[in-house]
Amino acid sequence: MTVAGMSGVSKRYGDFVALDDVSLGFTENRIHGLLGRNGAGKTTIMQILTGQNFETSGNVEVFGEHPYENARVLRDVCFIKESQKYPDMFAVHHALTAASLVYENWDGELAEELVEEFALPLKRRIRKLSRGQMSTVGIIIGLASRAPLTFFDEPYLGLDAVARHRFYDRLLADYAEHPRTIVLSTHLIDEISDLVEHVTLVEKGRVLLDEDTDELRAGTATVTGPARAVEEFAANHTELHREQLGGLLRVTLSGALPERSPEDLHVEPVSLQQLVVRTTRQATGEQFVGATNEKETHS
Ligand SMILES: Nc1ncnc2c1ncn2[C@@H]1O[C@H](COP(=O)(O)OP(=O)(O)OP(=O)(O)O)[C@@H](O)[C@H]1O
User: Fold this and answer.
1) Pocket test for ligand 1, best of 9, 19, 38, 43 (most atoms within 8 A of CB)
2) Are residues 160 and 28 in the same domain?
3) Same domain, 66 and 112
4) Cα(first)–Cα(last) distance of the chain, in Å?
5) Of 12, 43, 74, 142, which sees the most CB atoms within 10 A?
6) Probe ligand 1: pick from 9, 24, 35, 42, max atoms within 8 Å of CB?
7) Does 236 have pLDDT greater than 50?
8) Are 202 and 262 members of one domain?
9) What are the boundaries of the signal sequence (predicted)?
């Protein structure tokens, strides 16, 4: 069941089109990855779904209703973002107390455990916190709120790799015990590729991919071999990427791939990071020649 979605949504700021006919849905009790380059429109999508912004046209529904100024909907929604503002005098414990009053599923014990685990100074004023500590406040609120619909918009800024992985582990463990709908927007695709069950990729205000992670992986492969054999295999598939390696050709393909491939071809899975980069390049018509120009991280 879709708990939050939009269909045919556009968002304009003056002449600028931030969202262009976007249709997507976030399914109940799933971890979703909302991916895309800087300025793609991810935050705008999350703002609209959390009633903090308004679509120019199209339909938006969260728990069956429009979220804007809708207390009934918004009490079940938690939006964690880097730019969260707190009153000047607020210390960390004030922020946690405020959150405990807002979210009816708030788990105070979990919040306490996380404060200890992330070594967060409870009495320190929020404006004195380091960037990573600020992110930790958001992560703790996002997890302990147990809101049926939780958005994390790049929740890790300033956090070191150990703390980020602690967050992913905690998120997964808590989600296993208390399933809910979680939308994670991030640029660190490799780090979350085993976490997200569904991927929505946006680019320049349009949706490029909206698919379950398993299906995406199953429907994509990199095929390497003698050029003619690869060309034959590649016919009738969408080509995301092509590299010539001397006499060999390597292509990344998407679409229903045959279960068996000819013996002279080497077929490898594609990481989510590669898939996202290649799909985005293909959609934007960016051409990269040869392997040396590839600045991708491989997982
Ligand atoms: N209030 C505004 N007025 C004008 N343009 C805006 C406004 N808010 C956002 N935009 C533009 O809309 C586009 C989408 O922005 P958005 O913040 O949704 O991107 P994003 O995918 O979250 O990017 P990032 O990964 O860099 O955070 C950007 O080009 C941004 O500059």
Assistant:
1) 43
2) yes
3) yes
4) 31
5) 142
6) 42
7) yes
8) no
9) none
Cα angle value 91/168/151 (rounded, 5°): 65
**For range 91-115, the mean pLDDT:** 96
Nearest Cα residue to atom 18 of ligand 1: 41
Kindly give the distance from the C-alpha atom of residue 13 to the centroid of ligand 1, in angstroms, as a whole number: 10
Averaged pLDDT for residues 36-56: 96
User: In this structure, are 237 and 145 located in the same domain?
Assistant: no
Distance CA 11, CA 136 (A): 31
Q: pLDDT-derived band of residue 296, with 50, 70 and 90 as boundaries?
A: very low
Contact between 116 and 144 under an 8 Å Cβ cutoff? The reply is no
Atom of ligand 1 nearest to the CA of 205: 14
Average pLDDT taken over every residue of the chain: 91
**287 and 195 housed in the same domain:** no
The percent of residues above 90 in pLDDT, for the chain, comes to: 71
The residues, ordered by sequence, that sit 6+ positions from 72 with a Cβ below 8 Å of its Cβ are 63, 65
- pLDDT tens string 122-135: 999 999 999 999 99
Q: Residue 256 half-sphere exposure, CB side, CA atoms within 13 Å?
A: 0
In this prediction the ipTM stands at 0.97
Please give the single-letter amino acid code of residue 18. A
Q: Are residues 149 and 279 in the same domain?
A: no
CA of 50 to the centre of ligand 1 (A): 16
pLDDT at 299 over 70: no
- Which of 214, 232, 265 delimits the end of a domain? 214
